[in-house]
Amino acid sequence: MVRGRPVVTADGVVGRVNGATAHSAEVLVVADRNSSIAVRVDRTRARANVRGLGKPGAAKLDFALRSDDVVEGDLLVTSGTDGVFPRGLPVGKVSQLKKVGNGLFLDAMVIPSVDLTRVEEVLVYTSWETLADEAPPPLTTGKGP
User: Fold this and answer.
1) Which of 10, 123, 127, 130 has the smallest number of CB atoms closer than 10 Å to its CB?
2) pLDDT attached to residue 1
3) Cα(110)–Cα(52) distance, rounded to whole angstroms?
4) Per-residue pLDDT reduced to its tens digit, 103-122
5) Where are the strands (E) in 3-144, listed by range?
6) Is 70 helix (H, G, I), strand (E, B) or coil?
């Protein structure tokens, strides 16, 4: 198993493979302080990062611009721009959103989509195709032959 591969459940992102042996793998989970995942707000496509805080149910929203349309309860999904996760996988929901006085970024917490204390089985992505890998459809004029 290759280091850095995405680890998910049906509920969303668990983390990424940090190391592996023949029969087990160490996973850097979403809530780990060393974890950072590129995300986008599903509703508005605003981009940010989710960084772990070292507790199973806690993460922080990083680099979300104050000018972005973000509200509490917004679903955060992987953006696919970090080269690790395919786009569109649930990561968490925005909570405790604060637009502090001055500054460039929002202050918000993230509730992870996966309850890390109850994970029993996971799926490890070994490869995936994205729309960017596909050839664009041929252009047509809409007129018949």
Assistant:
1) 127
2) 60
3) 9
4) 889 989 999 999 999 999 99
5) 6-9, 12-20, 25-29, 36-41, 47-55, 58-62, 75-78, 90-98, 107-112, 123-124
6) coil
Predicted TM-score (pTM) above 0.90: no
Contacts within 8 Å (CB) and 24+ apart, 82-90: 82/37, 82/38, 84/4, 84/6, 84/16, 84/37, 85/6, 85/13, 85/16, 85/37, 85/38, 86/6, 86/125, 86/128, 86/130, 87/40, 87/130, 89/6, 89/8, 89/12, 89/13, 90/11, 90/12, 90/13
Alpha-carbon span 48 to 122, nearest angstrom: 25
Whether residue 74 is contained in a domain is answered as: yes
**For residue 37, is it within any domain?**
yes
We report the CATH number of the domain holding residue 54 as 2.40.10.350
Number of domains making up the chain:
1
Domain that holds residue 71: 6-127
Question: Tokens for 91?
Answer: 């990561």
Cα Rg, the chain, nearest whole Å: 18
Whether residue 59 is contained in a domain is answered as: yes
With a cut of 70, say whether residue 140 has pLDDT above it. no
